[in-house]
Design brief:
The complex is a heterotrimer of chains A (509), B (360) and C (356). Chain B has 360 residues and is an alpha/beta fold. Chain B contains 14 helices and ten strands. Chain C has two domains: 233 residues, Rossmann fold, CATH 3.40.50.300; 103 residues, OB fold (Dihydrolipoamide Acetyltransferase, E2P) (Beta Barrel). Chain C is globular and about 75 Å long. Classes of the chains: A mainly alpha (509), B alpha/beta (360), C alpha+beta (356).
Chain lengths: 509, 360, 356
């Protein structure tokens, strides 16, 4: 177990870590090349302060909202006698299948006057609360009931038991979910742009619009990168050495749920309200525009090529992401050490950067250093791989854990070669996780907007860019079919995330 | 803003091309599609075009308009065109960054400053004389490196329920006054806006322009794109907005959904607010297919190209000599735009001013 | 604390759906004593403990702790107001708190100063025999036995009227089990606390309890001091739950019973004829002879357990000194020392009675 990793594998993983760091390196080196004198007037100006404040405000309100909503809903789902809990769980997870920019489009369809911080908070909370709900619910479900019982027997009332015993166990999923929400908010462009709330992500695009991959755009990106890094560090610091694993090993007993009695009516109404806002509004709006009288502006002939090119990009990116992630995940699981963990973390860190930053970095770098790659399909696929590698890694990790070394040894002792063992034992056991990894990357690509806007080769259009083009022209009926395609393509990913969180209690990303 | 996100309707363009080709092929010279004009332009420009090449068009014009131009061009000449959609200044800066290795053959803009940026970088080839002859001097720079292909007028879109006609400003500069506090808006991230500002800079000087931008930042509302601004006026979110005329005409011709409660106010007396912005077309010096690229610009400024513009839903003014604009528009003769030297409209300076004002 | 009944359970029943788990349970635990509920898994013993703790509500009956009614006439006191201590099967230590904080958890609302609370925690660490160096550790840094000691200390901290132990040693390995059991017994004795222990391990019950309640299928079969149940079990099942033994067919007559091992004296005279004769392995002695055959010998270290086939075909187990020279296949004679137990209705037991 503690043996040294094979050098060739280590070299692969090292290459992957460097590859994943390209956007970060590009932004940093741009800064060094240009020099502080040119950067200073761009950083130290009121707009940056404004954007910083706006971005932080949104992060604060929406992350708090997601945690409050996710925690409350998770508690209702897991601890009360809510009728049809399984159905509600699925419906409450459904916003995972609706990209935030489609949600935004749906909301301004219903309430055209929506804009600013309040609107951005409402829409992003309704889009992202499942990121908190699912891991918290999974942890609540996995908690040893004896913990709460012991606390009760020690004279602690139900509320204080929740605060003193349950909540500390939920620290990891709450912080993890909160981080995920915050990173998404830092990166979110489409949803927030439609609601006229300027943040760094929208400002970078605006600057790109006026000046292309200029110093000003790269400086904004640099500040956004700093925000991401601060956030990731903060999460590590807050999480600290939280101990939340079950200490014992016995099977958890099913616990009695709190009987709602007449409370079932208002609680169910509240849950139904969240569902109505979270998926009812998008469903209504998309249906409205699809059946709108002026909706003849789209035809199969127009949409089919877009779907096809989106599918091709998604397939390529998912295969490559899994191939690239495998050696790193393998090392991290099989040869755990400070080095391999650092390599694994690097792929996560680099990928916490928003799509707009990765897009801008690759445009800047390719036009300068890799001209043959400029405006090509390989470059945009590389961007997807950088962005979505963590989704693959999380699943690859658990996939590899399904095939512990003891099985390898058993197979080798039965006369199988290393290769035969890999093919006959490891791969079959890891296959479901590998497929899940591919599916999640694939589906993330189908709704990626900002990096695609910047990097798509001439003539390549994806569902997200076409949807965005239509909504920017306020051509809402024209955007509806693309919205439907994206929702349909995202549904399997949402289902997969729901299933994973339900049966394994695993977090994701 | 909206330019980057505009749809490139390549499939539709292909369909349109097929339709046009079928039309021309079956009925020979029905004349309906203006093929008589087309023959004249192509005969005058470049008689031998290589139909095997595919031009790359960096298009910052409205995608539907360019798609229609390209479809008609391909139908007439057989030369295929691949469109990369973007916004004026993104693409202008992009071409500058790409330098002589740019994949672009032809560049079309919505406004002239982006084109000037590329011209000043020395990346444009001189246009064919025949092409330049099709457009009057007021719609092209003296350098002959590019030409106007369409024009749009600055207007103030207002909600009559919120502003009485009598209270409308006589100059766009009036919006700096405190009495307009909170009553107007614009889309400062877009190239359209920055073109208006460049005219203002040219006509009124730097400090007046900086003041005006400051007023927008503190007193005005900022929107993402002219459509969103007009929509807000229609909904009563803001009383008025500085936009281009064709957004209103386009919506009026469709459902009036975003303009039913909106009226247009055209500034007079050569006010900067009456600025007529010229959309440009140019050929890259680095183009590997100069003949075909020249032919495309020639086509767009020729009779057929201008008729595609007039007949379509773009509602921009035609600029070629004797080319009638869409009859729905307020006639160009009734406009009183300021006279501006196109080559003096300066985009980097404007971007700096807008950036300093904290608008981007 | 009074020295009367610390726990009084009357007529408690509990069903889960259609499954009746407890059926009219009565139990009294005198103050400062330990009662063990002993029974096979699934007999309902843990459910009874959870009812007493207040984690579940009974369908009927009453429970009072230290003279205070906590369950009855449709009212149920929540667990935090029952004044009980509870040690779960695997300790259920709070993973986010260190040993000290775990033990002090219940003292948050204890009417005492901070200093008194701190010294109470230190006292408990010592009481359960924990190394002081472990006090700042987190649960995952402790062994299973240490975790159980912390769990007990935590449960005892508030000096509850009643401590409930739910199979507290079942997850430990054999060596830790005995040492932990000894430490727990000592701590309970020193605190003088009334204890209800649930277990399926007869040695645990016998070692810790003043009173053993044998539960089978949701009912108590026998409630008495351990040695009494061991010596005078009320039926064959109680006899078997309290230790190993062999069962032979026999015919009883008054104070005697006739079986494959001859005519043996009964502990109590039998009012029936057809009998199941129950013989503990330590009563069986082996002598040289040829009447029976040794079929298997289990070497257990200090002693050996030999299975011996009698001429009747029945098999009887004998406990021998570890040094005794005996091997499978040897021919021996077998005798029984002391009185034996006989139970009625052997026929009903059928073939099962043959196996030891």
């Amino acid at each position: 177990m503690r043996s040294l990793p094979p050098l060739r594998l280590l070299a692969c993983a090292l290459a992957v870590a460097v590859f994943a760091s390209i956007p970060l390196i590009s932004i940093l080196s741009y800064g060094f090349r240009v020099g502080w004198d040119e950067i200073r007037p761009l950083v130290l100006r009121p707009l940056i302060g404004e954007l910083l404040l706006n971005t932080l405000w949104l992060c604060a309100t929406a992350t708090a909202g997601c945690i409050a909503l996710g925690l409350g809903l998770a508690w209702i789902l897991e601890r009360t006698s809510l009728p049809f809990a399984a159905l509600w769980r699925a419906l409450l997870a459904a916003p995972l299948a609706i990209p935030a920019f489609i949600n935004s489009y749906a909301w301004i369809t219903v309430r055209p006057e929506l804009d600013g911080l309040k609107a951005a908070t409402i829409v992003t909370v309704l889009s992202y609360y499942p990121f908190v709900l699912l891991p918290v619910a999974a942890t609540l479900r996995g908690l040893d009931p004896a913990l709460e019982e012991s606390a009760r027997a020690l004279g602690t009332g139900p509320v204080r038991t929740f605060l003193r015993v349950v909540l500390p166990q939920l620290r990891t999923p709450i912080l993890g979910g909160g981080l995920l929400v915050s990173l998404h908010l830092l990166a979110e462009y489409g949803a927030i742009e439609q609601l006229r709330y300027p943040t760094f992500a929208t400002a970078i695009i605006a600057q790109y619009e006026s000046t292309f991959a200029s110093t000003a755009a790269n400086v904004l990106a640099g500040v956004l990168v700093a925000c991401c890094l601060v956030l990731v560090t903060l999460e590590v610091f807050l999480r600290g050495r939280a101990r939340t694993a079950r200490v014992g090993s016995g099977a958890s007993r099913s616990r009695p749920r709190i009987r709602l009695g007449w409370w079932a009516i208002p609680v169910t109404a509240g849950v139904a309200g969240v569902v109505a806002l979270g998926i009812g509004v998008p469903a209504y709006s998309v249906t409205h525009w699809l059946t709108y009288t002026g909706a003849d502006s789209w035809t199969l002939g127009e949409i089919a090529p877009v779907v096809w090119s989106t599918l091709k990009l998604g397939a390529a990116a998912s295969v490559i992401a899994v191939a690239v992630g495998f050696p790193v995940a393998w090392l991290a699981v099989r040869y755990r050490s400070a080095l391999t963990t650092a390599l694994e973390r690097t792929t996560y860190l680099a990928s916490s950067l928003p799509g707009v930053v990765v897009g801008l970095a690759l445009v800047t770098a390719s036009i300068r250093y890799a001209r043959p790659l400029y405006q090509t399909t390989p470059l945009i696929i590389a961007a997807y791989v950088m962005l979505f590698l963590p989704r693959a890694m999380v699943n690859l990790r658990s996939a590899i854990q399904q095939a512990p070394p003891s099985l390898d040894q058993a197979s080798r002792a039965l006369g199988q070669s290393a290769l035969a063992t890999f093919l006959r034992v490891t791969i079959p056991l890891a296959a479901p996780g590998i497929l899940a990894a591919m599916a999640l990357v694939f589906l993330a690509v189908t709704t990626e907007l900002t990096a695609t806007l910047l990097l798509a080769p001439t003539g390549t259009h994806t569902l997200a860019t076409e949807f965005w083009a239509a909504t920017s022209e306020i051509d809402y009926p024209g955007a509806a079919p693309y919205a439907v395609c994206m929702i349909v393509l995202s549904t399997p990913a949402a289902w997969l995330l729901l299933r994973q969180s339900h049966f394994t209690g695993a977090s994701y990303e | 803003m909206h330019a980057l996100s505009k749809r490139a309707l390549a499939p539709i363009a292909a369909l349109a091309a097929l339709a046009l080709a079928a039309c021309g092929g079956s009925s020979g010279g029905s004349g309906e599609t203006g093929s008589s004009g087309g023959t004249e332009t192509s005969a005058g420009a470049t008689p031998t075009l290589d139909t095997g090449v595919t031009l790359v068009l960096y298009n910052a014009q409205h995608d539907t308009l360019s798609a229609a131009w390209v479809a008609a061009f391909t139908a007439e000449t057989g030369v295929k065109v691949e469109i990369r959609q973007g916004s004026d200044l993104t693409m202008a800066n992009q071409i500058v960054a790409e330098g002589s290795a740019s994949p672009a053959d032809v560049f079309l803009t919505e406004n002239s400053p982006g084109m000037s940026l590329v011209e000043n970088a020395g990346l444009l080839a001189p246009l064919d004389k025949a092409t330049l002859a099709q457009v009057p001097a007021s719609f092209k720079p003296s350098s002959g490196k590019w030409t106007g292909i369409a024009a749009r007028s600055t207007v103030m879109a207002y909600n009559p329920a919120m502003i009485a006609e009598a209270d409308l400003p006589t100059s766009i500069m009036d919006l700096r006054d405190a009495k307009w506090d909170g009553k107007w808006g614009a889309a400062p991230k877009g190239a359209d806006f920055q073109a208006i500002v460049s005219a203002m800079l040219e006509l009124k000087g730097e400090s007046a322009t900086a003041d005006w931008l400051k007023a927008l930042k503190s007193n005005g509302q900022q929107f993402t794109g002219n459509t969103a601004a007009m929509k807000a006026v229609n909904a009563g979110t803001v009383a008025s907005a500085i936009i281009y005329h064709y957004y209103w005409y386009g919506d009026q011709a469709k459902t009036k959904e975003n303009s039913a409660n909106v009226q247009l106010h055209f500034f007079k007396n050569q006010d900067p607010g009456a600025f007529l912005s010229v959309s440009g077309g140019g050929v890259l010096a680095s183009s590997k297919h100069p003949n075909e690229a020249q032919a495309l610009v020639n086509f767009i400024t020729g009779k057929t190209g201008q008729k595609v513009l007039a007949d379509g839903t773009a509602f921009e003014y035609c600029v070629a000599t004797d080319a009638p604009s869409n009859p729905a528009l307020k006639p160009m003769t009734q406009l009183s735009p300021p006279t501006v030297d196109l080559s003096k409209l300066n985009s980097p300076k404007v971007v700096t001013l807008v950036t300093n004002a904290g608008l981007i | 604390m009074n020295d009367g009944a610390a726990l009084e359970v009357r007529g408690i029943s509990k069903s889960f759906g259609r499954l009746r788990v407890l059926d009219g349970i009565d139990l009294t635990i005198p103050g400062r004593t330990t009662t063990a509920i002993l029974g096979p898994s699934g007999c309902g013993k843990t459910t009874l403990l959870r009812l007493v703790a207040g984690f579940e509500r009974s369908d009927g009956g009453t429970i009072s702790i230290a003279g205070r009614s906590v369950q009855g006439s449709g009212r149920s006191t929540p667990p935090n107001r029952r004044d009980v201590g509870y040690v779960a099967q695997e300790g259920a230590l709070f993973p986010h708190l260190d040993v000290r904080a775990n033990i002090g958890f219940g003292l948050a609302r204890w009417p005492a100063g901070r200093k008194a609370k701190r010294s109470r925690v230190e006292q408990l660490i010592e009481l359960v025999g924990l190394d002081r160096g472990h006090a700042a550790r987190h649960p995952h840094e402790l062994s299973g036995g240490q975790q159980q000691r912390v769990a007990l200390a935590r449960a005892l901290a508030r000096r509850p009227s009643l401590v409930l132990l739910d199979e507290p040693f079942s997850s430990l390995d054999a060596s830790a089990r005995v040492s932990t059991r000894t430490a727990v017994a000592a701590a309970l004795r020193e605190e003088g606390v009334t204890t209800l222990l649930v277990t399926h391990d007869q040695s645990e019950a016998l070692a810790l309890a003043d009173q053993v309640a044998v539960m089978v299928a949701g009912r108590f079969r026998q409630v008495a001091p351990g040695p009494e149940i061991y010596l005078r079990p009320i039926d064959l099942e109680c006899a078997r739950l309290l230790g190993a033994g062999s069962t032979l067919q026999g015919r009883a007559a008054g104070d005697w019973v006739e079986c494959a091992l001859g005519r043996l004296p009964l502990a109590d005279s039998a009012p029936f004829t057809s009998a199941a004769v129950f013989i503990r392995p330590e009563q069986v002695t082996v002598h040289s002879g040829t009447a029976a055959v040794v079929t298997a010998v289990d070497y257990l270290g200090a002693d050996k357990l030999a299975a011996i086939r009698l001429p009747s075909g029945e098999v009887v187990e004998a406990r021998l000194a570890g040094t005794a020279a005996l091997a499978a296949g040897d021919q021996v004679d077998v005798r029984v020392e002391g009185t034996v137990l006989a139970f009625a209705s052997l026929d009903a037991l059928g073939a099962k009675a043959n196996s030891g």
